[in-house]
Specification:
391 residues; four-stranded parallel sheet; 15 helices; alpha/beta; single chain
Length: 391
């Protein structure tokens, strides 16, 4: 059973290795999953998934491979004829009608009643409040309503009241092809964090204390070390306004996640492309600008430079003096970009536009060329690849 499942995970894009498979096998031999499918699911997930961003992918592959298997229900479900669950009608009830329907009174009672129905039932049922079927108020079946039931054979949720549904996915947002949410960005940014010891020695070093005490024949020798701090420095430059208005939510999430993940974070805004000035406050961007040269002089080259923008503009804004849509720039934007990249060699550009559109936008190609092709889509997979290139 495990070997075909292992190959299905590999074919589905998981990076599960034989080592993880053997670990799962040993855990099963030790009886860690017992007789529970739920316990087996969590055990398999812990053993076989090495990357948090693949949890949703694992759920889908697990659900496809073990489709129809449910905790303590596997022997029951195989005896339910498909005809009993075929939809010919779907139940809709008012709130008053729903309030009159009572639950079975707990999981054990629900399972006991399901076994009794299987022993007694011999034909398809539609409607009603007892038998396994469709469009009724029975706790068992599909396309009906019960405040506490076992959903069987129904495609997707309707009332979100089923007690047992194997195909429920807990990590929908963590598929690496979806657009980012704040939590997902944090997961990806965490890969960049590097910790170093800084400041006064004010934390107990337990391992060293034990070692030194043992070497002193049991005489306690307490060893202290400085607290660990996030040592990564990030310079975040965000495109604002114009076509970026379509991506405000994603950029806000990116900004929020970055501020919570990095102790040493500096940020600036620009419009369309970088020139001689950037700014911190969009409401005062005309009066309170920061010279780009001052930025390069103030923040050392160990900062990681991250641009966030759709790179969608007139190519003149990048390649020509005076190309900016808002002011007359004495030097082309490309010149300023090259200065920034010389100061900060570890740099990436994150683009919220779908990658399929990039080849149809000349300005995107210009920016990619300036960035030495270090442009990544603003998805979990894209951010993950970008973070790797910054390390």
């Amino acid at each position: 059973m495990l070997i075909p499942f292992f190959y299905m995970l590999r074919e589905g894009g998981m990076k599960t290795s034989v080592t993880e498979l053997l670990t799962l096998h040993e855990a099963l031999q030790a009886g860690l999953a017992g007789q529970s499918v739920d316990d087996f699911y969590f055990l398999a997930r812990a053993a076989l998934v090495k990357d948090e961003s693949h949890l949703d992918r694992f759920d889908r592959i697990f659900g496809a491979y073990f489709k129809g298997v449910d905790d303590s229900l596997s022997d029951l479900m195989q005896d339910i004829p498909e005809e009993w669950l075929r939809r010919q009608a779907e139940l809709s009830l008012s709130e008053e009608e729903r309030a009159l329907i009572e639950s079975m009174g707990g999981f054990d009672e629900l399972m006991k009643a399901l076994q009794e129905r299987l022993d007694e039932q011999d034909e398809r049922h539609e409607g009603g409040n007892k038998w396994i079927g469709t469009a009724g108020t029975s706790p068992f079946g599909a396309y009906g309503f019960n405040p506490e039931g076992v959903r069987i054979g129904q495609e997707g949720s309707r009332n979100r009241s089923a007690v047992k549904v194997w195909d429920k996915r807990e990590y929908r947002d963590l598929d690496d092809s979806v657009e980012l949410g704040t939590r997902n960005i944090k997961v990806a940014l965490r890969r960049l964090r590097k910790f170093a010891r800084e400041g006064a020695a004010d934390q107990l070093d337990l391992d060293d204390t034990i070692d030194k005490t043992a070497r002193n024949a049991g005489l306690l020798d307490i060893r202290m070390i400085p607290e660990r701090h996030n040592a990564v420095k990030v310079l975040l430059c965000l495109d604002i306004g114009g076509s970026m208005d379509d991506h405000v939510r994603i950029c806000e999430e990116m900004f929020s996640a970055a501020r919570s993940e990095f102790k040493h974070l500096e940020y600036f805004y620009f419009h369309n492309f970088v020139y001689e000035n950037m700014w911190k406050d969009n409401r005062r961007r005309q009066s309170e600008k920061t010279s780009t040269l001052d930025i390069t002089h103030k923040y050392a080259s160990d900062y990681k430079l991250v641009f966030v923008g759709d790179a969608t503009m007139s190519p003149y804004e990048i390649a020509y003096p005076g190309g900016s849509v808002e002011h007359w720039n004495e030097e082309a934007g490309a010149v300023w970009m090259q200065r920034l990249l010389r100061t900060y060699p570890k740099a990436i550009w994150l683009n919220p536009e779908p990658q399929a559109r990039w080849d149809y936008t000349p300005s995107v190609k210009l920016v990619r060329d300036l960035m030495d092709d270090r442009m990544y889509p603003l998805t979990i997979a894209g951010l993950d690849d970008g973070i790797r290139s910054l390390r």
